[in-house]
């Protein structure tokens, strides 16, 4: 069979080594004779797995001791609700920075609970590229309970590498599609969260990293499973956690550590992104309309000069083993999501295919 | 290796045939060259899987057309919050029937949103056994938005086989540990829900079956992922669903259909439960303190005449391949959870072990 490379934005491909290990021990975890998904989350063996996964994630991201790490259900959209329900406390206001579809969706949910000051910072450069205003120009309302932004917009292919300074206002970030792709200074954030299905593991798990002083202020009507204090006090096992997803996330964390940690992973991600962007920029057949300063390393949208070739591009790339390259319906064209699990050989295969396709049809 | 039988209450054992199929296609689903957990939930292939799983569940439970079937995140405890947030509408009151720990936990969550009339119907028989008052003696408040009960209390080992008549008040049931174990007349219920990790699949998935007229009344502040109307309109894909759990649930549904459906499955469950209860009742060394009329077929707690032998029983049973027999800490003793996936050979192995243990230590 042709080697398959899967460019899906999420649920995304997982590391090949992780998948092979998971398959080999699928029905017999650690010699127990049963699957890890059949093990009680209250058993010493599973609790050891869970604690190790948290410890490895803390090591990877250098999470300071005054932050809780929570393994939750409900995905990123669950956190769109959980964040205001947990962080507003007795305040009524929160700031949301708009950089694309995901940050806009977060606002819709937050408006159920708070008065939102939303600021659209998307703009265009002199040559018509999409960009965003620098972080130091973002407005901060000093009375806000927090400021929320999305450092990587999966659909538009925008990534924000600077971290805004928000003074005493806690900074909250939806890191779903950038977490673990590059080093982070967690201490600059009050809270970060991420749906797992891009850079962590399968869908159905979300990670929350939250500073201690922001825990314990939840509104009374919050569903208990979303209450950070309840989950922190129960080691994320107030309700039965998604145990198999947690296990796979733990394998992914070990795989990242084995590569030398996030600084090494970032180097690979930079090389992968440069390979693809350089191929796009060197061609007049392909284009990407995001300014270089805010181009995502994880999600790379591009268009063909002739839209009528889109279906041909998709069918021929699929036949070549390059899967799920169709762009999001809101922006059209193509999109290659190249998270940590995508090896550079996959990006090279895509670049080679794109060159051959251009030669054939341009 | 000794054959292992896993009596965990949840996450519970899954059918051996399902696990073997899942392992064999773990990295190459339907010849795609990738795992089903790496497939986009928006792809035609995954949508076909999702629709087939729903269709199979509808067939198994004979779900009427005027009911929605939803695949959700957040487990049973998530639904403890979702039910009042969706069903109260402009009412303030709901009725909760108490039959054990799980129905009590549901009340704690519901009180965040409604005035709860809670009625404890647990009682004891003349000979000191735990029982519950008959359904026709349960009080129904005609002004309540719904009446909630739990037909199978996993911890106490109580099962309620009759379905109460609540007139115009919608009946809501937490079926987490009894769903798919016996036929149900869904039309008697307004809503049933179940965490998957007992009789459906791995943890991290919950199933909701809700009558059409109860959808669309959610409170404005409900987290959108819990809003039945939003999820129904999005075919349970408003947010990225737990795709791998959904896939495994689908395999379990196919496995149940291949056995001839739920009526056939019930016969096996009756035989399994009788085998174990008969062994307990025939012995003066083991005992179960639940009245026969309300004994659970799924979760069978029992105690040893001499508590000081508990640790020995647990270590020797584990060595014999009989796993996770420790009772819940709230009731102590032992518990054998024998959901659909447990073959009668597993129950026979437990009964044989219990007889040998009694002979050795009594």
TrEMBL record, chains A, B:
<feature type="binding site">
    <location>
        <position position="42"/>
    </location>
    <ligand>
        <name>L-glutamate</name>
    </ligand>
</feature>
<feature type="binding site">
    <location>
        <position position="197"/>
    </location>
    <ligand>
        <name>pyridoxal 5'-phosphate</name>
    </ligand>
</feature>
<dbReference type="InterPro" id="IPR022278">
    <property type="entry name" value="Pser_aminoTfrase"/>
</dbReference>
<comment type="similarity">
    <text>Belongs to the class-V pyridoxal-phosphate-dependent aminotransferase family. SerC subfamily.</text>
</comment>
<keyword id="KW-0664">Pyridoxine biosynthesis</keyword>
<feature type="binding site">
    <location>
        <position position="102"/>
    </location>
    <ligand>
        <name>pyridoxal 5'-phosphate</name>
    </ligand>
</feature>
<dbReference type="InterPro" id="IPR015421">
    <property type="entry name" value="PyrdxlP-dep_Trfase_major"/>
</dbReference>
<dbReference type="InterPro" id="IPR015424">
    <property type="entry name" value="PyrdxlP-dep_Trfase"/>
</dbReference>
<dbReference type="Pfam" id="PF00266">
    <property type="entry name" value="Aminotran_5"/>
</dbReference>
<keyword id="KW-0808">Transferase</keyword>
<comment type="subunit">
    <text>Homodimer.</text>
</comment>
<feature type="binding site">
    <location>
        <position position="174"/>
    </location>
    <ligand>
        <name>pyridoxal 5'-phosphate</name>
    </ligand>
</feature>
<keyword id="KW-0963">Cytoplasm</keyword>
<protein>
    <recommendedName>
        <fullName>Phosphoserine aminotransferase</fullName>
        <ecNumber>2.6.1.52</ecNumber>
    </recommendedName>
</protein>
<comment type="pathway">
    <text>Cofactor biosynthesis; pyridoxine 5'-phosphate biosynthesis; pyridoxine 5'-phosphate from D-erythrose 4-phosphate: step 3/5.</text>
</comment>
<feature type="binding site">
    <location>
        <begin position="76"/>
        <end position="77"/>
    </location>
    <ligand>
        <name>pyridoxal 5'-phosphate</name>
    </ligand>
</feature>
<feature type="binding site">
    <location>
        <position position="154"/>
    </location>
    <ligand>
        <name>pyridoxal 5'-phosphate</name>
    </ligand>
</feature>
<feature type="binding site">
    <location>
        <begin position="239"/>
        <end position="240"/>
    </location>
    <ligand>
        <name>pyridoxal 5'-phosphate</name>
    </ligand>
</feature>
<comment type="pathway">
    <text>Amino-acid biosynthesis; L-serine biosynthesis; L-serine from 3-phospho-D-glycerate: step 2/3.</text>
</comment>
<keyword id="KW-0032">Aminotransferase</keyword>
<dbReference type="GO" id="GO:0004648">
    <property type="term" value="F:O-phospho-L-serine:2-oxoglutarate aminotransferase activity"/>
</dbReference>
<keyword id="KW-0718">Serine biosynthesis</keyword>
<keyword id="KW-0028">Amino-acid biosynthesis</keyword>
<dbReference type="InterPro" id="IPR015422">
    <property type="entry name" value="PyrdxlP-dep_Trfase_small"/>
</dbReference>
<dbReference type="InterPro" id="IPR020578">
    <property type="entry name" value="Aminotrans_V_PyrdxlP_BS"/>
</dbReference>
<feature type="domain" description="Aminotransferase class V">
    <location>
        <begin position="5"/>
        <end position="350"/>
    </location>
</feature>
<feature type="modified residue" description="N6-(pyridoxal phosphate)lysine">
    <location>
        <position position="198"/>
    </location>
</feature>
<dbReference type="InterPro" id="IPR000192">
    <property type="entry name" value="Aminotrans_V_dom"/>
</dbReference>
<keyword id="KW-0663">Pyridoxal phosphate</keyword>
<comment type="function">
    <text>Catalyzes the reversible conversion of 3-phosphohydroxypyruvate to phosphoserine and of 3-hydroxy-2-oxo-4-phosphonooxybutanoate to phosphohydroxythreonine.</text>
</comment>
